[in-house]
Structures are given as structure tokens and as C-alpha cells.
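Handover notes (outgoing to incoming on-call)

Open items:
1. Cellulose synthase-like protein G3: sequence verified, structure written out, both below. Nothing else pending on this one.
2. Nothing else urgent.
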Amino acid sequence: MAPLLHTHQIHPRATLNRLHFLLYSLSLLLLLHHHTTTPSSFLLLLADVFLGFMWLLSQGYRWRPVRRWEFPEHLSKVTDSKDLPALDVFICTADPYKEPPVGVASTALSALAFDYPSDRLSVYVSDDGGSDLTLFAFFEAAKFARCWLPFCRQNGVMERSPEAYFQSGGCDAEAEEMKVMFESLKERVDCAMEKGYVDLNLVNSPEEKEIFKTWKNFTRNDHPSVIQVLLESKKDKDITGHPLPNMIYISREKCPTSPHNFKAGALNALLRVSETMTNAPLILTLDCDMCSNDPNAPQRALCYFLDKDFSPNLSFVQFPQRYIGINKNDIYSGEFRRVFILGEQGLDGLQGPNYVGTGSFFSRRSLYSSPPVTMPSSDEFKVQSCLLSSELVLLKAHEAASSEYEHGRKEWGSQIGFRYGSLVEDYYTGYRLHCQGWRSVFCNPDRPAFLGEAPKSLVDALSQGKRWFVGLYQVCFSRYCPLLYGSRKISLLAGFCYMYYAAWGCWCIPLIIYGLLPQLALFYGKSLFPKASDPWFFLYAYLFLSTYVQDLIEFMEVGGLIQRWWSEQRMWLIKGITSSTFATLDFILSQIGCSAPGFNLTSKVKKEEENKLYENGKFVFSTASPFFVSMGTIAIVNVISFIFGFIKAVLRVGGLDEMLIQLLLSGFIVTNSWPIYEAMFTRKDGGKMPESVTKASILLSTILFCLGNFYFT
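Cellulose synthase-like protein G3 C-alpha cells:
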């Protein structure tokens, strides 16, 4: 009998989810019936239809969630370590000032230090900014790797990112020596960063000096291809004489006349260049800040790829995104547990989790074709034997990195490689691969395989959400709409899952309606919901409470805390009225041929103070952003409506009975908006709301109350 490499189990909550689905479906039908038999606002009906539609789509994730376990200790019974398939690691960076080169280098070093045969491991770094600063950091990292890799191997280090390891403290004498070396590396790179270029005095090697001399006329969007073999396994050894893995720096050619297709284009350039150099059958994609936290992560992925009964149609193994440095209550909801764990477990029970852009081990062949009927030949798993730095190999690599390579090769980005056509190239690529018949697997070990950094700025978090929503709209309203195309190509439930994400931006419709209309009606004494004494009241109570209770239970099942769950639902509300709203407007304007008005976001608080406020659990509103105007407007409308509505309800006979739902709704939003009120009216630190934003919010609130007066009286 073949050794067991992995097993799985349908999550016990699947049965409860299905029972809840039946009860909730009946309740929704009753709600719609109530709308048709009683006079109600059309806008409330519209909001309820949208909420019901999004709830229905979300049931795809809840129908058959799966948990998996791997047994990497059994791999030795399947294959010898020297016969493991080669692995190419892709790391993408684009801006040395937004993505510090030392951090990117730490990510690369953590991948170089995998417990994997060095002659079968290659790390490719794509620098889409074409920055000499990034290349300089990697020249330094290549030198440091000669000491760092044997140190990790001999001491059983698990955190193999030097930045993460040295920040954890507790260094012995040998570790202190390594730390001094790493600090020297950082100082040299920081010195170049301060100057804005690589001073040749910082470079010792004549060969390196010649390379940096060519950099003077390079710009971010106009430069030739640069391919530099920094480490080559066949030639380079560490200080113990052990061969080092390959490490290759790539900056693809860019010119203003050729589209570069953002990160998907960079990944496809890596795909082609690596094919000419190492051509490993397995590919790991990593974000530049997503460091390895488990040197045995590749072995966990191999538990699926080396299962001959499982692997013929397996495209990728997806690890969850996990984060470090998040504050106690995760005030900006940076963990994304619902997306990266709950959602992936749900999809894993259907055709497999979606690709989330990092922590993904791909079968190279899945990026070129549809699933084969039979297993590929063993020749696919052979590593090329020629030197990477040979003239012939580099010539082919430069051709593959050319900006004109895809001219006349329209299959790139549509049928081959990472897919173009959406700002969320990861979501779109995973979705299209599933539509082709490939499947995927979610691997979620107890020890996080990879750790990254979540946004610690509210503006950054909201801007990131806006970009995602625009990209998801691009898929939602394309010929590959998940509800229409995906449901036919994959399955109905998987189509629901992908459509749920694609329609994420639509949350702004019900959230804005429920965030303003009942409150304005409350202010003017107009009841929109059943009385508390009416049996229909309990229907609304059940719909609200059961949704939130289920949400809380799921969140805590995957290791979440109640405080963090509260932060997550608050950020869902905030993003619905900010990121989602502006993304919807941007997408509509782009579809009618108008350019969306941009806005420059310049924080007025120093980074050190912003980080300190974040660590203390304080929101930072120091930027004069339109996001904050919409938040402030809804917060002001709700608190004024709640105060005046409560007074009127108490003074009027039967008022509380008639207005209870609207009072509870306003009170709920006021509670969620407390950090906004503090930032507007009581805080004196650098994270307070700019006066211009507060004034704009008050003005818009006044306009809304005037419109409410016209509408309700």
C-alpha cells in the first residue's frame, strides 16, 4: 500500500450551515412577501434584494468546507531527496521606496534557505521598477547568503528571514555575529537609498561597478531588460563548501509604447525567463514582503503534487496569507481571515481554493495548457544542465524579457500564463484555471508557512480595497462573469463563490441605503419598519442576529478573537461606504469613457507616530481623504438622528414601539462609528480628523437632512 501523504475531512459546520440555509431562505422569502403586502420604501426593497443576493452567493463557501492534513514525513517513502522536482520561486517588487529592498532581500533569503536540495532550488526576483537600488541590495544579499544559509541549516532556524529572526531577539554569540553582518548589509543599502542611487564607492567588485555604470539613463517605465545571475548552484558555494541555490535578478524591458500589464505581466516575464534557465516543474509565487516561516513548506505542497492519483489535474497548492505586526484588536481588519481561510476552506470542498497572489505552489504545465488525460512523462521533471550565466542562455532569457515578446503572441495573458484583464490578476488567474478544468488545494498547517505585513494605515487599507473592487468589477462585467460563465464551466456553487467576490463592490448599495434612509426617517418621525409589538419585528431580529452569530462562530472557529471580529465587521461597514463606493463610481466612469478624478493622499502625521498610534489601537485619520468625508457624513447623520429620534420617541405615546428598529439600527452604527467621533471632536494627537474633512462632513450631513425634509414631509 502506498504511504498516506494527505487526508481531508468535510468540516463539521457544513451540516449546521445547510440547516441555517433552509431557515434563512424561508425568512428571506417572508421578508420579500412582507415588502409586497405593506407599503415600504423602494430603496429598502432594493437594499434587501442586494443583501439577499449576496447572502445567497456566500452559501457556496458554506456548503462543503474542507479541512486537510499533510504527512511530509512520508515523502521519503515515495521518492529520494535527490529526485524531488525542481522548484522556481518568483518574487515581485516594483518600487524600492514603497517596498524597501532590504525587506525584499529578506524574503528572497528566506526562500533560498528552504530545506530543499540546493541544486533543485532557484529564486527569481522581478524588479519592475528597474531600480539599481534593488539590484544593489541583492548583490549584498547574495554575499550574506553564503553565511546565512549554513547558519540556518546548522542551528535548525525556523524563521529564515533574517529581518524576522533578528527582531525576535534571544541571539547567542554566533547569532550576534550574523546580526552584525546583516546590520552592515542594511547600512550599505540604506546609504544608497538616502542618496537615491548606488554610489560606486559602495561597490567593491569591478564587475559590479560596470553593471551600475549602465544605470544612469534608466527610468521606471523606460529601460532595457536586465538579467543578473547573482548565485549559481553549479559554481557558488557557501562558507562550508555546500552548493548554494540559484538566485537571479530580472528587470524586464519596459517602453512607453508597449503595455506592461502590471504584476501579471511581470510574472509572465518570469515564467518565460525561468523556462529558458531552470524550467522547474513547480513554481512558488511570493509577495515581496511574504517571508517563509517554515522551511519545510515545499514538502507540504509535494504531499499533493507527488500523489499520482491526485496530481494530474492539480494546478496549485494555496497556503493562507498570515500576518505579523498586527495590533491587539486588528483595528483595520488586516488578517482577512474570512477571505484567506474561511473562503478558501469553502472553495476547497468544491474545485479548490482561489489563487491569492502569494504562497502558491504551481504546476508549471497548468499555466500553459488544460489538464492532461494522463500523467506527463518524467522528462518534465528534469533540470536543464547548462550554466545559467552562459551567453546562449542569457541571450534567450533577454529575448523572453523583451517588451516586444508578446507582440503577435496573443495567447499570453489570455490562454497562457497569468491572466490579463483585471487589476486582481491573482483572483482572475485562479478563476480561469478552474474554468479550464484544473483544481487546487488549500494547505493550512498549524505553523504558518509564510508571514507578511498587513497595511498599518487606514488610507492604505481603504485604497487597497478600492483597487481590489475595481479589479473584481472588471471580471464581474466581462464575458467571463462567474455567475454566467463560471457556473457552466466549474459548478453552480463554485460560480456562486467567485461571483460573491466579483460583486463585492456592490456592498455599497445596501450599506449606504441602510446607513442613511432609516436614520433620516427617524429624524423626521417616519416609521419604515414593523413595530416592536408586531410579529414581523421578530423576522427582522432573526435575520440580523442569526447572520451576525453565524459570522462570529465562523470567525472564532479559525482562531479569531471577539475583539478582532468586531473590528472586522466594522471595517466591512467602513469599506462598504468608502472603498466600495469610490470603486463603483470609478468603474462606471471608466465604462462610459470618462476618467475618474484622482486624489493625492498625503499623510500629515509622521510614520513613527502613525505606527505608535496603530500599536495603541488608535485609528489614524490625519489624511484629508474623500474616504473620510463619506465616513464622517454617515457618522454625523446617525448620531444626530439617534439623539433626536430617541427624544421624540420617548415623548410620543407609542413612539419607542414604533421606532425601535430604526433606533437600534442607528445605535448600532453610532457604536461602530465611535473612533470617528473621537477623531472629529475630542482627539488632539496626530491621528485626529483634519478640520477640512470635519467641515465637509457637516456640510454634506446638512444637505442630506434638507433632502430628507423634502422626501419625508
